Amino acid sequence: MQVEIVTPDEKVFEGEARHVQLPGKEGLFGILNNHAPIVATLVKGRVKVEATDGDVQYFDIGGGVVEMNNNKVIVLAEK
Questions:
Q1: How many domains does the chain have?
Q2: DSSP letters spanning 32-78
Q3: How many C-beta neighbours within 10 Å does residue 40 have?
Q4: Whose CA is closest to 69, among 43, 34, 40, 41?
Q5: Structural domain span for residue 70
Q6: Taking the CB of the first residue and of the last residue of the chain, which one, N or C, has fewer CB atoms within 10 A?
Q7: CATH number at residue 44
Q8: Is the entire prediction scored with pTM above 0.90?
Q9: pLDDT digits (tens, 9 = 90+) for 55-64
């Protein structure tokens, strides 16, 4: 799935991933390929992106919103 993490100042990450873990209002949750469409509020925490090659990256955010639709994840994050 395609993943983008965007802040008001810049695009922090763009690439293919097999798993994304996010800090939701109700706790951590994950998104995998072919996940049902979702829009969720995010809280301050760490986004974990596991790339298709197994590389793992972490991004600290101050909150935001995530949308998953048609295997595209867009994270609009406060930095």
A1: 1
A2: ETTPPPEEEEEEEEEEEEEETTS-EEEEEEEEEEEEEETTEEEEEE-
A3: 15
A4: 34
A5: 2-77
A6: C
A7: 2.60.15.10
A8: yes
A9: 999 999 999 9
Handedness of CA 60, 14, 7, 38 (dihedral sign): negative
Distance, in Å, from the CA atom of 23 to the CA atom of 33, rounded to the nearest integer, reads 18
Cβ-contact 45, 26 below 8 angstroms: no
Per DSSP, the three-state class of 26 is coil
Question: What whole-number distance in Å separates Cα of residue 47 and Cα of residue 70?
Answer: 20
d(CA 62, CA 17): 22
47 residue type, one letter: V
